[in-house]
Design goal:
With 262 residues, the chain is of the alpha/beta class. The strands form three sheets. Strands 1-2-3-4-5-6-7 form a seven-stranded mixed beta sheet.
């Protein structure tokens, strides 16, 4: 693996500034979760909540749903171990992956069918990729975490994935697909609270409404998530769901999925 001294730079001159965030919480042995925020690339100055998961893997720390932390947060992260890998699950996420590659020499993984784009619409032909991952992943790929595997939803654009870790009854790490935001947290500003409420964002155990509308997965692909065995969900938006997660999400997954295609 690369070390920080041999890290490759991304195809961007600078990285986005650190996000506001809370403390890293250890939910399970070797699994941490931190909530924070992000400013959306929109004309209206919207700031919404997001979350990052860190897992101790074979040779160091693995980051999912990367979020650039403050210097204080990075010191807290460094105390947990060496950052070695960054896995991009959500096709609409990933802007901070390059920061962790440049700072730590971490290997960046993305799902086949994704690309790193700026803005809100990956379908625009004029939108160029600002970086490339080191490794492309699919469901047959080996992850740097014992007992971990991917569930890929490739009927949507951009491609989305979930990571299932076979411990504690099944820990499912998600990007935009499964969310858990019953109410706005401190990382939402006022315009975001209004707009995201109208969008149906503030619901517990929810299938991401924005992801359904803009990525357009098939209903069968979304419902196939219930074929996985999991007790817990660590989402890219909202708080962690500890215990009974599969049954908590079942009504939303089996219900009306606005934006899906047949």
């Amino acid at each position: 693996m690369r070390t920080a001294s041999t890290a490759r730079t991304s195809n961007s001159i600078s990285h986005p500034s650190p996000s506001p965030h809370g403390r890293l919480r250890e939910l399970f042995d070797g699994v941490w979760f931190v909530r924070g925020g992000i400013k959306m690339p929109m004309r209206v100055p919207m700031k919404i909540g997001r979350a990052m998961t860190v897992v101790r893997g074979d040779d160091g720390l693995v980051i999912f749903n990367s979020m650039r932390l403050s210097e204080e947060g990075l010191r807290e992260l460094d105390a947990l171990g060496d950052v070695r890998h960054v896995v991009r699950l959500a096709g609409f996420h990933g802007r901070d992956d390059g920061f962790y590659r440049d700072r730590y020499g971490a290997t960046v993984y993305a799902i086949k069918g994704q690309r790193y784009f700026r803005g809100m619409d990956p379908k625009k032909q004029s939108v160029a990729s600002f970086m490339e991952p080191d490794v492309w992943l699919d469901e047959e790929s080996t992850l740097p975490i014992p007992g971990a595997r991917l569930k890929v939803i490739d009927s949507c654009d951009p491609t989305e994935a979930l990571c299932l870790i076979d411990r504690e009854g099944g820990i499912l790490i998600t990007g935009d697909s499964l969310q858990n935001s019953p109410a706005p947290d401190e990382f939402f500003n006022f315009p975001a609270k209004l707009m995201m409420k109208r969008f149906g964002f503030f619901k517990p155990y929810n299938v991401g409404p924005g992801w359904l509308q803009f990525a357009n997965p098939s209903a069968d692909d979304v419902r196939s998530i219930l074929q996985l065995d999991f007790e817990h969900v660590l989402p890219g938006h909202g708080d962690a769901v500890i215990g009974g997660a599969k049954e908590k999400y079942r009504p939303a997954i089996e219900g009306e999925l606005k934006g899906c295609h047949a």
